[in-house]
Amino acid sequence: MKPNFLPAEKLEASGIFNYACCFFCAAFYSPSQHNMIKTLGHICIHSNDLERSRNFYCGALGLKPHFDFLKDGELFGFYLQVAPGHFIEVFKADPAAEIRGQRIHHFCLEVDDIDALRDLLVKHGVEVTPKRLGCDQSWQCWCKDPDGTEVEFQQYTPKSSQFTRKNCIVDW
């Protein structure tokens, strides 16, 4: 199958991320074919302390355990349900492996009430940034999980680019 590339004028000088996304979408999408990707199934992170990670994701964030991974009769990881069909997979980090930092820059969880979530995180002793309106017109705040992975929380507004599809003027 021959890729369907976008013309160069469509690739505005808006950064490497947008270029990469346009290239990826153009290379693998053709209007005549069905989208083979249904949805994001899960993200996977490594944890140095599974108990602390479970307490953060289940205790502070209220995610529901879905199933565990066992290795040699011991807990090796777990699957957490974010929403039906959407999961976070957490595995025990190999202590002998070279640590080069997180391979995931951050991930974002959509919430209905960012103020209530922020209050809950603070109550659980989690350092969380102040709420602010992002350039996409969505409310956001950030924290880090016990292993340093950045977690963004967004509450969409009627003006959110996720609904309006309006481009964002990046302010960072």
Verbal overview:
By secondary structure, this protein is an alpha/beta fold. It has 2 domains: 1-36, no CATH class; 42-164, 2,3-Dihydroxybiphenyl 1,2-Dioxygenase, domain 1 (Roll), CATH 3.10.180.10. Helices cover 22% and strands 29% of the residues. The strands form 2 sheets. Strands 1-4-3-2 form a 4-stranded mixed sheet, covered by helices on one side. The longest helix has 13 residues, at 16-28. The model is unreliable at 1-33 (pLDDT under 50).
Helix proportion range: 10-25%
Number of helices: 4
User: How many structural domains can be distinguished in the coordinates?
Assistant: 2
- The percentage of residues in β strands lies in 25-35%
Per the principal axes of the C-alpha atoms, what is the gross shape? globular
Biggest sheet, open or closed, and with what strands and sense?
4 strands, mixed
